[in-house]
Structure formats: C-alpha cells, structure tokens
Write a structure and sequence with these properties.
Largest sheet: 8 strands, antiparallel, barrel
Distance between the termini: 65 Å
Number of helices: 9
Strand content: 35-45%
Shape: globular
Radius of gyration: 27 Å
Low-confidence stretches: 339-348
Helix content: 10-25%
Number of strands: 27
Mean pLDDT: 89
Strand order of the largest sheet: 12-13-14-15-16-17-18-19
Structural class: alpha+beta
Length: about 425
C-alpha cells in the first residue's frame, strides 16, 4: 500500500507539473528494494485499464468522457476502494514458437469463455473477421477477477482452457503455461522471466494423445450421420454409412495425420455408436453427440470406453482441430485418393511467414550458404523479420524483389539443400 500511494502521488505531481488534464497513464520501473523510477506517460487509457475497472467497479472510459466534457471526477482518490485481484491476458494472433511472430488470416472459429462476474472479454473482432497486417494482431483481452491472486490465477487457467481459436496461430496455450508456471504463480517476476523459464514455457513438442485421434474420428462420424439424417428422405440406400453387410461386419478406415505422424482408425458400426480401433490396438466403444447447434460450435460430448469427455472438434477444410484438456491438436484428414494421401498440409520452399514488404536480399543468387545464414529481410506490422537458410545449401533464385509487397505463404527463395 505504501508503494502504491507513493507511485500515485508521483503520477499526480507529474501531471500537475505540465498542466495535464484528461486520462493518462504514468509508467514506472520498480526495483525489488521498493525504489521506483519514472519511465513514461501515455496520454490516454492503456490496454490494461479493465484490470483497474474490475477491482474498483468503475468505468474509466466513462470518466474519460466526463472529464473531456468539462465535468469533475465523480470520486476523489480517498473515496476509491480496491476489492480483490484481477489479471488481464492479451489473446494475440501470434506464434510463440516462432519468436512471437504475428499471424494473419480469417478467424474460422472463435469461441471465448462465457462472461460473468469473474470473467470479462474485451474484443473488436468476431468469427469470420480477418486479422490483417495493417493493425495490431490482438484478438481480445481476457480479464479475470477473484478475491485474491491465487483464485484469480485459477480463474485465468480455466478461462484459457475454454478459449478456442481456429484460423490463425495464437498464444492461448503459451499463456496457459505461463499462468501455470511456478515462478509466475509465486510472483517471482522480472523482465527476464520468459528466458529464465524457457524450459517450462516452451516444452518439447509431443504427439497428440490417443483420445485426440479418437475424438477426431468420432466427430467425423457424427457429422456424417447428421448429414445423412438430413437427406434421409431422398437418399439412396447405397449412400448409407451404417456399415451394414449381408454377411459379417463392415469395417472402414479413417486416416489422420499430424506432421509426419500418420495414424489409422478402424471403424465398425455398432448399435448406438461405433467401435474404433487405433492402429490395430484394442477396440474402444465410442458414442457421442454434437452440441445443440449441430456441431457448428465444435462442442462434442463423448464417451470413449468408460471415460466421458467434453471436448470440441472444429472441422476446417482437411484439418480437424481437437480442443481437449486445454490443448489444441490440429490433425489432417488424409484422403488417399487426393494428392497421394498428403492432405492439405504439404508445403515446401522458403515462404513468407506473413504478409509484408521485402526490404532486402542479403545473399546473392547462386551462392552457397550455411544453415542459419540470413537470406532476406521482410517488414510487417512495424517489425523486421529475417528469413534464414533452413540448412546448408544453395540459393538458386529469388522470387521477389526489394520493395515488393508479398502475401502470406508465397515462396520467396528457391533453395536447394546440400546433399
């Protein structure tokens, strides 16, 4: 409380010294010993203002408008009361595994947690909107409140586990790991936190659990059944997908892929559901139902053997995004009659990681380079990004020129890996 009061006095004195009237935010840098130093003043409300609103019950935007209209502040500093603890997490279209590189694209699926007394969502986009390179890639601000910091952190972890975004890379799982990090939980905080806790915040990638593959297959089957029911009045009996055979059981196979890992799910229809066999293992009885909206929200209530699961599976093109236990698993439905069974995941070449402007070509065409050699510099979202050689090899040719505006995913460099 003493440091808070001292900071408040310093902020007021700074504003008074320059005759400032209106909303403003003064920032300080604090030492562990309690000393603090002026850093800057932003002449506006900042993105964190909902935190103050959640612990005071006030609307600072309303106050800003009242002051601008010449009205006095509704309350004095002495009349303000703080209740509980609030935390804000910024939901960003960015890829933490690629140095927090911003991501662009259409929000194919956007489902935030439910709002209430403990959870607030501030956003300017909705499902179907585009995240473009022309503006900040923030999707939303997630603000949680409870009586103390430990309870607020629990609220934050729960809300992040319920947040679902498909269409752009995002930082939701990174934020969930941050909220679960012991150093963060214990408020052992400084500007080196991410580097210091890198092992916890950026764990080695692991394969999706068996349940994710089975849920993706179950969602596929439930969507097929729903589509068949809608056209039942006019459908041919040859369109039936119930596995009926004149003699014996009919089995079909669904193939799914994550990166280089491909797995097979054998499907046999049984009364009320399906018997699923993952890679020839033990069969699992699978039953489930889609959300009340017919699966548009992705919600899936499932039973795999003796286990009941509440998950979500969002189908986007060939991809099946499985949201389970706070993690997202993007699986590709493999069609063996299409592109040799590679699905829509195949790609190659050195490509633009996002829309942007080519600033410079650093290595001459035809030159032999080592892995990690800078090849090209792009500018996007007010930042410069350097593309480097993925391996030892030769720069065969550039497919862009300095000053050229390029789209996301466009091949920029023709590169040949050394044998």
């Amino acid at each position: 409380p003493e440091r808070r009061a001292a900071m408040g006095r310093a902020a007021v004195e700074a504003a008074r010294a320059v005759g400032y009237v209106g909303a403003g935010t003064v920032e300080f840098i604090a030492n562990q010993d309690g000393s603090f130093y002026f850093m800057e003043m932003n002449t506006r409300l900042q993105v964190e203002h909902p935190v103050t609103e959640m612990i005071t019950g006030l609307d600072l935007v309303e106050w800003q408008l009242r002051v601008a209209a010449g009205q006095p502040l509704p309350l004095t500093q002495e009349q303000l009361q703080i209740d509980g603890h609030a935390i804000e997490a910024r939901i960003y279209a960015e890829d933490p595994d690629k140095g927090f590189l911003p991501s662009t694209g259409r929000l194919i699926h956007l489902a935030p947690p439910a709002e209430g007394e403990h959870v607030r969502i501030d956003t300017g986009v909705e499902q179907g909107d585009e995240i473009t390179p022309h503006y900040d890639p923030m999707i939303a601000k997630l603000i949680v409140w409870d009586q103390d910091r430990d309870l607020a952190l629990a609220r934050l972890r729960t809300a992040l586990a319920q947040y679902r975004v498909v269409g752009v890379a995002n930082n939701i799982e990174f934020l969930a790991r941050l909220a679960a990090c012991p150093a963060f939980s214990q408020a052992d905080l400084d500007t080196g936190l991410i580097e210091r806790e890198a092992a916890f915040l950026f764990p080695e990638a692991t394969d999706p659990p068996d349940e994710a593959w089975l849920l993706a297959a179950l969602a596929e089957l439930l969507h097929e059944s729903a589509a068949q029911a809608r056209r039942a009045a006019t459908a041919s009996p040859w369109d039936a997908l119930d596995g009926w055979r004149l003699n014996g059981q009919g089995m079909r196979e669904l193939r799914l892929r994550r990166g280089e890992l491909q797995r097979s799910v054998g499907v046999v229809s049984v009364p009320g559901g399906w018997q699923l066999t993952l890679d020839g293992g033990a069969p699992v009885l699978a039953r489930g139902e889609l959300g009340r909206d017919g699966g548009k929200s992705g919600k899936l209530h499932a039973q795999l053997g003796e286990r009941r699961l509440h998950a979500a599976v969002v189908i986007a093109g060939e991809r099946r995004h499985v949201f389970l236990d706070g993690h997202t698993h993007a699986l590709v439905r493999v069609d063996t009659l299409h592109t040799g069974g590679q699905g829509d995941d195949a790609h190659g070449g050195l490509r633009a990681p996002m829309p942007g402007k080519v600033i410079a070509l650093l290595a001459p065409a035809g030159s032999t380079v080592d892995k990690g050699t800078p090849l090209l510099v792009m500018e996007a979202m007010k930042m410069e990004h350097t593309l480097t050689a993925p391996a030892n090899g030769t720069v065969k040719a550039y497919r862009c020129a300095p000053g050229e505006q390029v789209a996301d995913g466009v091949e920029l460099v023709e590169f040949e890996v050394a044998p």
